[in-house]
């Protein structure tokens, strides 16, 4: 089985998957049935097409009258295995083998084809889709802090600093506000003195 | 006959397949029920797994296909089975149309390239598409001015050119089944041809069912392209939203917008965030964030414009589909019909200026 992205994989990650979507915003305006035509191929005489022939004789016209927007072609071909090919508005074709299926199964298959859009069946990542995920606005960290400081106008001038200038008081940020007095008379130690001192 | 059945049942597959071919070629031998057995299949049915004695040939054919690439696309009418009349009636049923067959057939016929103006014997979409284009233009502009009354003319023009863009309409036509029914000179049909065909079909509906039917057709297929799209960010994309905002405020004689840096975070990192707020005098207009201060300011201007033109997420959605109520329909179709319909209850609103 090959999907849109190549051959079969063994895990959900490697098998093809898609997000939920509809074709052309289908439900917004008038509803358009996505199934264009159905081609029913079967053999006139063989055993394997027995149920297909029975379906064509008894149930096909009923099906056709229920779905007038679908064109149905019945193709009898000698020694052809029974198969139904459904073509959709987005250009895709789906073929289903009707060998060893009875009339009820065939009817179910056709009804399923009629209800589907032509999108390939792959694992759907989310059951929902929305173009507007948030109505009141998404949360961001500044949302609930309502106090501004807007006295200063927007400053467009680029602030240039010399990279080689010493950054004054480099350790200020590492101290709590009430412990800043410890920075005032910091002893300058040599490497050996630091090694002897206790840690912390 | 009995002999053949026993051989077929008991002997290995390749012999059985040989006997199957023998039986197929000589109709004098009558078939047994086992010959149609699904266990015995021809190479055509064994997709990807040819018969062993055909393997080399099958592999070389596969390689040839790979080298030459896929076949050029063929129009659907040349493949398998095709009944034009049935397809046309199914098309009408699918799109809930009630159109005369001859007009639709004309809409689906592309005019030949080298045709004299005198010899107009072949009916094609050339005059239909002219009228259809005008009708679509008028209807869509009227819809936009009714649905988005506060948008300026530049915005309305941008939305209209988005809705009636050639490639967008061609995409619509392709997904509504126009490509199969189209009788075109070169297959596959270009975007231009599909667009012309679509607009010609609009005119065909207009001539058969009246302007209301054609208007509803446009309302149901062309206008829902707006769904999920933001007018300012996706469709219009003005180059300088700040100047537009300045113009708007000047028109309403309000103080010009001033930007203020409100929040900032991670300035020295690779992912900084700056929040800029716009104020008109002391009145708050809008606030937005961005990766740099100019970007944030531009975005804030866009948010302010969205509020002004009432095209933000929170404002009323452009009516389409189920949300189209009688009042809006009356506003929309009044210039087409020239009178209010009896069945519709319309509030007499004297402030509406309806432009045909």
TrEMBL record, chain A:
* Domain of life assignment: Eukaryota
Keyword Endoplasmic reticulum applies = no
Principal place where this protein is found? Answer: mitochondrion
Q: Where is the Ribosomal protein/NADH dehydrogenase domain?
A: 44-117
User: InterPro entries, from UniProt?
Assistant: Ribosomal_mL43 (IPR039927), Ribosomal_mL43/mS25/NADH_DH (IPR007741), Thioredoxin-like_sf (IPR036249)
Taking the record's annotation, the residue ranges forming a coiled coil are none
Q: Which Gene3D superfamilies match?
A: Glutaredoxin
Q: Protein name, please? A: Large ribosomal subunit protein mL43
Q: Which family does it belong to?
A: Belongs to the mitochondrion-specific ribosomal protein mL43 family.
Keyword list, A-Z: Mitochondrion, Ribonucleoprotein, Ribosomal protein
Q: Which SMART domains match?
A: L51_S25_CI-B8
Locations listed in the record: Mitochondrion
UniProtKB/TrEMBL annotation, chain B:
Q: Which residues form the DRBM domain?
A: 240-310
Task: Cite the SUPFAM superfamilies for this sequence.
Answer: dsRNA-binding domain-like, RNase III domain-like
Give its localization: Mitochondrion
The segment(s) forming the RNase III domain are: 95-183
The main place the protein resides is mitochondrion
Q: Which Pfam families match?
A: DSRM_MRPL44, RM44_endonuclase
Alphabetized, the UniProt keywords read: Mitochondrion, Ribonucleoprotein, Ribosomal protein, RNA-binding, Transit peptide
Which family, according to the similarity comment?
Belongs to the ribonuclease III family. Mitochondrion-specific ribosomal protein mL44 subfamily.
Recorded protein name is Large ribosomal subunit protein mL44
What species does this protein belong to?
Clavelina lepadiformis
